[in-house]
Amino acid sequence: MRFAIASFLAHALTAASSFTPSARRSFRTSSxxxxxxxxxxSTFIDGINTSYxxxxxxxxLQFWGTKMALSGPQYSTAELTxxxxxxxxxxxxxEKLSKTRELLKVVPEDSVExxxxxxxxxxxxxxxxxxxxxxxxxxxxxxxxxxxEAARNTLxxxxxxxxxxxxxxxxxxxxxxxxxxxxxxxKACYEGLxxxxxxxxxxxxxxxxxxRNRMAKKLGFLDFYDYKVSNAEGxxxxxxxxxxxxxxxxxxxxxxxxxKQFAAEKGGESALSPWNQGFLMAGDITRRMDPYFPFExxxxxWGRSFAAMNISYKQATMDLDLLDRKGKYSNGFxxxxxxxxxxxxxxxxxxTTHFTSLADPSAIGSGYTGLTTLMHEAGHAAxxxxxxxxxxxxxxERSPTSVAYAELQSMxxxxxxxxxxxxxxxxxxREGDAIPWDLIAxxxxxTHPYKVFALRGMxxxxxxxxxxxxxxxxxxxxxxxxxxxDKVEKDIQGGLSARPLLSVPHILSDEASCYYHGYxxxxxxxxxxxxxxxKRDKYITDNPSVGPTLTEAYWKPGNSESFxxxxxxxxxxPLKGDAWVNELKQSVKDVLKEEKASYDxxxxxxxxAETDTDVDLDMRIRIVDGDSVLADTAEDGGFLETCKKxxxxxxxxxxxx
Length: 657
Prior knowledge:
- By secondary structure, the chain is an alpha/beta fold.
- It is globular.
- The protein has 27 helices and nine strands.
- The strands form three sheets. Strands 4-7-3-8-9 form a five-stranded mixed β-sheet.
- Mean pLDDT is 92; it is low at 1-31.
């Protein structure tokens, strides 16, 4: 693992530390550049910033409107395609790249201006296509993707249960596969998920794969996967899979052993069926834990947890669309129509965040998954709200921003939901009771020996997409894609997956395709970052140094530094998978001992501490449901008052008769 990372570390992009307004003023007053040159540089950078900010906002508003199925006539697939094209055309202007390189020759190498120009050079390089054919193919791919997405939004999903078709979203189907006690129901819901693959391969995905690959090859890349990872991470597909292959080989024996143990414990090979594995591993425990994760309290618990870690959103505005509904995009995400940045006069521009999850509060397990998603997407929002650099292009989520860098922040923070000390304080029933230790212990015993299954599930997506884009063009058909997906699931996960690869929404959209490797690299970083905090501070939950540490080390620089450099700078070691693999190898007995000690300590602390009557995240929050505003901190008196209003709304709407 160390050798694999060292082999490409030299190619990863690095830069200096984060910008402050005072540093910019200091540079300008001491610069040896002529006033005329300085004015040229400033005018160019300021023009790029202003124009990009507007184009970015227009695209992101369309992205939100179409993904959330908002009713306004201003939202349409055609407008989404147009605004995306205009934004990318702006970034793909060769004259801008030429001017950037010209100005880089006249600014001091260690100046703030040079840092910004280098970032612009990297960004323009990700979008400029010297081949006219590639540009045409790019436009064609965008059009195909738009049509596929529009068709996907109209797809009716569900399962035939007891002879009657029951309509459900992909989230609802996955939830029933995981927690429904009836095997026939779980199998029917799994089969409902497999219909997504049939639909997408019949409605443009084949053509999209072919067109994406043609475009990438015209630009000189091995294929579309190589194109995407090179732009996002700064190193190519071959270097990426040096890392993933090491992790895959190192965990394959653990996976094979875990599958044998699981089948032996749970009644034979049928336990490994995709509709049985998740339920038999923890389905009953999930049902019994459900009362301690009431969904209506999730916003409040997220806010209290982040506030206790001193995480601030620096005057941001956030729209949260948390509830599942028909026509809504079938995956949680967090985007920023307004990136955070520091303007030329030193004025701070706070971010505006749109983030969504797909909760069904009436479903068993929705509280846990909804809260985990909330912690995840709120982690993204905290990260991008705290980027303090002199251009909005440092704080946008597309290339050259590293996928792994972005996902590390959110996955580190959502990992807390599984910690016993976090649950001791925040997993509280509607009656005010903390989750009992015995239930946590049962969950550890049921799931810890099989944590490798989640790792292998993450690996399956990049291995599938690599193989998909390596297929000869003449072999790319609906049937061959579906056969490939099944083959990869069996090879990487040991059998068919409860979440079929072709139901993973990331593979369809341009922004998220060939992206999933970022979760794997990020998870490596999560375990390494957790190890750092536990060694330095002994705890993470409610640790007031977590927010400031993450802000300084990970968040402020934005995409001015590489993912690998940031992890090494904080943890003191190159990125490696040791911490993750060591956790997989840890005995259940040792895990129980550690978690019991942290649970008891936190429970004792909570019993003697007063509950905070104010939570300040330095942010305006609007909780919405499509076009409807459910609660607003600016209108309802503050964070806790807004949480209470949302809680009452959920209780009223989803109270069972």
